[in-house]
């Protein structure tokens, strides 16, 4: 445990002084945000999460119209690949989930784009992407056909050539879905070699 505590204290370059004690937190539970990651204390166990390597899982929240209103962060993986299961709805200020998603996206998207330009095939659960296509199982679409990625009834959906295609891939079982969405926004409508869309 002493080693784990030392890792937690030194996990980030600059501790941001934000601790999770929101209404969903139980006594002894804590979440601290750092420049390069997060530390959590849940059930007496301290774990270190790195933004550049973690896998984050989301639970879609359905809307009254049957679509997806939002996605709640439910689980991350720590620096050793072990799961960090958050209390239902997480804990700490609600905006922390958005802050974590933005930090993970900022750390992982540039490296993913670089890997794709070098010919890599990246996987997000049941979904795979290359520089020129995205697919799952026996279904695939070229980026020139894709317009956007969404979630319908906990299934990943692609809007292509003006119509939505709901794929069998389960959104809540897809690691870093928001990273996949960000990559889709960069690559949708592009041809191999374009390098993705430039940031606005």
Supply the key terms.
single chain; 200 residues; alpha+beta; 3 helices; disordered C terminus
What's the short version?
The protein is of the alpha+beta class and 200 residues long. The protein has helices spanning 2-9, 95-117, 177-187, and strands spanning 15-19, 30-34, 37-42, 45-50, 56-62, 68-77, 83-85, 122-124, 127-129, 133-136, 139-142, 146-152, 155-160, 163-170.
Task: Give a structural overview.
By secondary structure, this protein is of the alpha+beta class. 21% of the residues lie in helices and 38% in strands. The protein is built from three helices and 14 strands. It has helices at 2-9, 95-117, 177-187, and strands at 15-19, 30-34, 37-42, 45-50, 56-62, 68-77, 83-85, 122-124, 127-129, 133-136, 139-142, 146-152, 155-160, 163-170. A four-stranded antiparallel sheet has the order 1-2-3-4, sandwiched between helices. It has a four-stranded antiparallel sheet with strand order 8-9-10-11, covered by helices on one side. A three-stranded antiparallel sheet has the order 5-6-7, with no helix packed on it. The radius of gyration is 18 Å and the shape is globular. The termini are far apart. Mean pLDDT is 80; it is low at 1-24 and 195-200.
